[in-house]
Amino acid sequence: MAFFNRELVLGRNPHYDKGIRLLDQGLYQEAITEFEQVGTSDLAVYRLARFHLGQAYAELGQRYLQGGLLERAEAALRRAIEIHPRFADLHCHLGIALRRQGRCPEAIEALNHALQINPRFAYAKLQMALCYLQMSEKGRGWQTAQEAVALEPRLHTSDFQKAMQALEEDNLTGAIAALEQVRISEVEDIQFHTRLGDDLYRRGMYDRAAEEYRKALHVNGEYPDLYNRLGVALLAQGDYSGAEEALRRALELNPRYAEAQANLVLALRGAGKQAEAQQALQRLAEIAPDSLLLQSAG
């Protein structure tokens, strides 16, 4: 979630305005139709429409993935990635959609992209392990699964132990089935608070959104995306100091996190720290030369 105040351009393009309303209602396909009709005559509106177009495709892709509509999920996620190529979650979800279609080499490529963006993305690593197992590469698959647990020890659940036992018994099918069930309550709690926070943010309830992101971080404080979301919510409230602290923490965990870097520029500008903001902008140019923030600056 990048911090660009979508309300600033409301009233300047009817397709953009309608797209925002539809997006907030969860009507993603309808929102896509509206955002795609926003022309380039007003570049500020166009750039924000592109950002939210990617968001709508991402949400639609996840909905299709949850419903088992794998080809549709793949198509939507690929469109989202075209717009937001540095969102690790999108590459991971694409990898899952491809793996479930039996296209494991392509899935591994997508998951590698996710891990390049966020090397500590344990769930992407776990999905890669499943790919190797589906390809009957037992040794490599199990090694990769152990690497996932090393990144996130909470993945070492009873289902993970069942998978280990199945592999010891040379039951590859059972190992895959068990590993697919690996979940941790902490991750589910984090997802609950994150989605609630996102919903509150979209409705302009920034203080309550920040509260939900903090609840998620209380469960596990090692997720850079959560610190970025918290920073976004604090920026919306004008709490530039708090936003800077959250965003710097996100960048400690993932130094190439382009979204957090862009949001840090805005936090520093808001706090009147122009010299530091310029340094942060230069860093953004290094890691994400096609950033929306750099385009708007130009």
Written description of the protein model:
The longest helix has 24 residues, at 43-66. This protein folds into 3 domains: 1-85, Serine Threonine Protein Phosphatase 5, Tetratricopeptide repeat, CATH 1.25.40; 87-183, Tetratricopeptide repeat domain (Serine Threonine Protein Phosphatase 5, Tetratricopeptide repeat, Alpha Horseshoe), CATH 1.25.40.10; 186-297, Tetratricopeptide repeat domain (Serine Threonine Protein Phosphatase 5, Tetratricopeptide repeat, Alpha Horseshoe), CATH 1.25.40.10. With 298 residues, the chain is mainly alpha-helical. It is 75% helix and 0% strand.
What keyword list fits this structure?
298 residues; mainly alpha; Serine Threonine Protein Phosphatase 5, Tetratricopeptide repeat; 17 helices; 0% strand
What's a quick, concise take on this entry?
With 298 residues, the protein is an all-alpha fold. The chain contains 17 helices and no strands.
Topology (SSEs and partners):
Layout (H helix, E strand, L loop, with lengths): L13 H11 L3 H8 L7 H24 L3 H14 L4 H13 L3 H14 L4 H13 L3 H14 L6 H11 L3 H9 L4 H18 L3 H14 L4 H14 L2 H14 L4 H13 L3 H14 L4 H6 L1
Mean pLDDT: 89
Point out poorly predicted stretches: none
Compute the gyration radius: what is it?
20 Å
The number of distinct β-strands equals: 0
**Fourth CATH level, the homologous superfamily of the largest domain:** Tetratricopeptide repeat domain
- CATH architecture assignment name of the largest domain: Alpha Horseshoe
Shape: globular
User: What class, by secondary structure content?
Assistant: mainly alpha
What proportion of the residues form beta strands (DSSP E)?
under 5%
Distance between the termini: 22 Å
The assembly state of the depicted protein chains is single chain
Reading off the top of the CATH hierarchy, the class of the largest domain is best stated as Mainly Alpha
Secondary-structure element pattern, one letter each: HHHHHHHHHHHHHHHHH
| Total of helices | 17
What do we call the CATH topology of the largest domain? Serine Threonine Protein Phosphatase 5, Tetratricopeptide repeat
Whole-number total of structural domains:
3
